[in-house]
Write a structure and sequence with these properties.
Helix content: 25-40%
Number of domains: 1
CATH class: Alpha Beta
CATH superfamily: Class I glutamine amidotransferase (GATase) domain
Radius of gyration: 15 Å
CATH topology: Rossmann fold
Order of helices and strands: EHEEHHEHEEEEEEEEH
Number of strands: 12
Strand content: 25-35%
Bound molecules: glutamine
Structural class: alpha/beta
Number of helices: 5
Strand order of the largest sheet: 2-1-3-4-12-11-10
């Protein structure tokens, strides 16, 4: 299993560290030539979704990655990465539109921009969750399996080979969401 990590901006190094701890091969994607290397799964990290969306297009990475996703590439999006996957972005422009979810950006307001909690995740267990100016999933289509909710809002979901979390598993010592994604990606091979 080789995992590519989009490394244009944001918290990509933390995902690389999580994969290192799991002993999983990975490399960073920064330019189109990087896509020539074989990979089985992709991580879209947290950061700033509008900046990443613009860089993806400016650097000619958007279309090849969109095609790979349409072909069934397993993708794990965290926070801004979740926004990049969403079909609808409230008050904004969708990027890959690969997952049938509508997201609300910066959904927790200025006061509560960042917070920590714990909540159960379907099929994984109760997990630590760090939210940083996080989105939540305001609605999800029938193909989407809701994995976790916090305060009545969806914060983790899966649709086929796509996994998305509002929170940042890569910032906690708990590797179980990465493990869950690698199992999902392994079954897709
Ligand atoms: N607020 C950011 C956005 O809208 C996401 C924050 C994050 O990834 N930690 O892209």
């Amino acid at each position: 299993m080789i995992v590519a990590i989009l490394a244009l901006q944001g918290a990509f190094a933390e995902h690389a560290a999580a994969l290192d701890r799991l002993g999983t091969d990975h490399f960073e994607i920064r330019r189109p030539q990087d896509l020539d290397r074989p990979f089985d799964a992709l991580i879209l990290p947290g950061g700033e979704s509008t900046v990443m969306g613009k860089l993806l297009r400016d650097l000619d990475l958007f279309e090849p990655l969109r095609v790979r996703m349409a072909e069934g590439l397993p993708v794990f999006g965290t926070c801004a990465g979740l926004i990049l996957l969403a079909r609808t972005v409230e008050g904004g422009t969708p990027c890959f539109a690969a997952m049938d979810i509508a997201v609300k950006r910066n959904a927790y307001g200025r006061q509560l921009g960042s917070f920590y909690t714990q909540a159960p995740v379907l099929g994984i267990g109760t997990l630590p969750m760090t939210f940083i100016r996080a989105p939540y999933i305001a609605s999800a289509g029938p193909a989407v399996q809701v994995l976790a909710q916090v305060d009545g809002h969806i914060v983790a979901a899966r649709q086929g080979n796509l996994l998305a979390t509002s929170f940042h598993p890569e910032l906690s010592a708990d590797l179980s969401v990465h493990r869950y994604f690698l199992a999902l990606a392994g079954r897709a091979q």
